[in-house]
Design goal:
The complex is a heterodimer of chains A (about 100) and B (about 350). By secondary structure, chain A is an alpha/beta fold. Chain A has four helices and four strands, in the order βαβαβαβα. In chain A, α1 links the parallel β1 (about 1-5) and β2 (about 25-35). The relative contact order of chain A is 0.20. Helices cover about 70% and strands about 10% of the residues of chain B. The two termini of chain B are about 40 Å apart. Chain B is of the alpha+beta class and about 350 residues long. Chain B has helices at about 1-30, 35-55, 60-75, 85-90, 95-115, 120-205, 205-235, 240-250, 270-290, 325-335; strands at about 240, 255-260, 265, 295-305, 305-315, 340-345, 350-359. The chains are: A alpha/beta (about 100), B alpha+beta (about 350).
Chain lengths: ~100, ~350
């Protein structure tokens, strides 16, 4: 089973993703977070296999989460979620080599 | 302008009114070619020449006129010679009171005691001095009003330009706000809709699944529409400077602004539009403040990726162009934007400024 952490501030989007991933029996959502601070906390606790990460979030954005995790030596494969093609943010995410 | 021509005309009339009676008396007395009269004529002509030279070396030329006026009064007592003293007084209007008043008093005393019978010296002195003060203060008030008018014109120009820039900025801010709202509200809901439809597609089959797939296609279309609108709103809208420049012309009365604008001249970069507008404002302010010009011609054209602003006025001009704060600030802004600026002027040939900005 692939253990997934879902980080997304919009509740309806998060619910939709949860239903979608729930269709696949090989995927288990082990944690959810609606902002960056919360995300760092649950990721460190749960150590998921994959993170689904929204970039734009209150308190700490997606890039901030990645930086925070790297500083603390936690590395985890991450899929970036964006509603629109926010090119600059994506490039920054890649430049962070995460 | 009519007022200035009127003033010139009055000056010529004054020279004639002073000269004619004196010459007539000399003719009558057959002394027109006497050494005394010839010296008077020379002094009188010298006075007039000095009057027209006045602009160049202010104080020394006026001092020369003062001496010449006293000599003329001495050589030809009677007639209208003392009017020359009033002309000197008028030219001293730009000086401070502590310089002008003793100066006027001194020249009047010189005239009163050299060319009037001893008994009449005091009343004549007071009379002349009164006229001189009148001339002095009249011109002083006129200068003050002219300065106030210039300051008003400058303030108006500044206000107009600031308003235009503010409008430009608030239009941009408003567009960005709409873009952000569209992105945040519509975007998220459409994304959620799209995900939910994907779930529904997995849970259905047959005809229901076809319907869901159609809905998914529509959702994708909607998403890309919103995305297009958002990115279009975020692009800079080309800025047309025409309206801003014309309204600047409306608030300036002297010099009158003659605009020649290339049709369809629009600037993509708001920062460049701002620099261009500020440059024009500086050109106008400079002309209002220093040139005394009646007309200011302004031409804006664009070619080969360059915006050029050409201006010239028909003011006094100068052989010695000095960069004050205004022109220096303008050159700094233009050069910062990788543009160039040159200024050319000659005494009596107006003032010209050329600015080139990369588009």
């Amino acid at each position: 089973v692939i253990r997934v952490c879902l980080v997304e501030d919009q509740t309806i989007v998060r619910q939709g993703l949860r239903s979608l991933l729930g269709l696949n029996p090989d995927i288990a959502i082990v944690a959810e977070a609606s902002d960056g601070e919360e995300a760092v906390e649950v990721i460190e606790r749960e150590k998921p296999d994959v993170i689904l990460l929204d970039l734009r979030m209150p308190r700490l954005d997606g890039l901030g989460v990645l930086q925070r995790l790297r500083e603390r030596g936690t590395s985890c494969p991450t899929l970036i979620l964006t509603t629109f093609d926010d090119d600059t943010m994506l490039f920054e995410a890649r430049a962070s080599s995460l | 302008m009519l007022e200035e021509r009127g003033l010139d005309f009055t000056a010529y009339l004054t020279w004639i009114v002073i000269a004619i009676p004196t010459v007539m008396w000399q003719l009558r007395d057959h002394t027109l070619t006497s050494p005394r009269t010839l010296v008077w004529m020379a002094c009188y002509v010298a006075f007039i020449i000095c009057f027209f030279l006045h602009g160049r070396h202010r104080v020394s030329i006026v001092a020369a006129q003062s001496v010449l006026a006293v000599v003329c009064c001495f050589l030809e007592p009677g007639g209208f010679q003392p009017v020359l003293l009033v002309i000197v007084a008028a030219q001293l209007a730009a000086q401070t009171l502590t310089i002008a008043i003793p100066w006027l008093l001194l020249q009047t005393i010189a005239v009163a005691f050299s060319s009037v019978k001893p008994g009449a010296a005091l009343p004549v002195l007071l009379g002349f001095f009164g006229f001189e003060l009148f001339g002095f203060f009249a011109v002083r008030i006129a200068i003050k009003e002219e300065r106030a008018r210039q300051q008003l014109a400058e303030a108006n120009a500044e206000l107009r330009v600031a308003t235009e820039l503010l409008e430009m900025n608030s239009r941009t801010a408003e567009r960005l706000r709409i873009a952000r709202d569209l992105h945040d509200l519509l975007g998220h809901h459409l994304a959620a809709l799209s995900i939910n439809l994907e779930v529904a597609r997995h849970l259905t089959d047959g005809e229901a699944r076809d319907q869901v797939e159609k809905s998914q296609a529509v959702t994708k279309l909607l998403l890309s529409d919103v995305r297009d609108v958002v990115s279009r709103l975020r692009e800079d809208e080309p800025i047309d400077l025409t309206a801003a420049l014309r309204s600047l012309g409306d608030v300036i009365q002297k010099p009158s602004l003659h605009l020649e604008l290339e049709s369809g001249l629009a600037l993509k970069d708001p920062a460049m539009a701002q620099i261009a507008l500020r440059a024009v404002q500086e050109i106008v302010t400079n002309s209002v403040r220093h040139s005394g010009a009646r007309n200011l011609w302004l031409k804006l054209t664009s070619s080969a990726g360059t915006l050029s602003i050409e201006s010239r006025d028909d003011g006094c001009g100068t052989d010695d162009v000095r960069f004050g704060n205004g022109l220096r600030g303008m050159r700094e802004r233009v050069e910062e934007a990788r543009g160039s600026m040159e200024v050319s002027s000659m005494r009596g040939a107006g003032f010209a400024v050329g600015v080139r900005l990369p588009l």
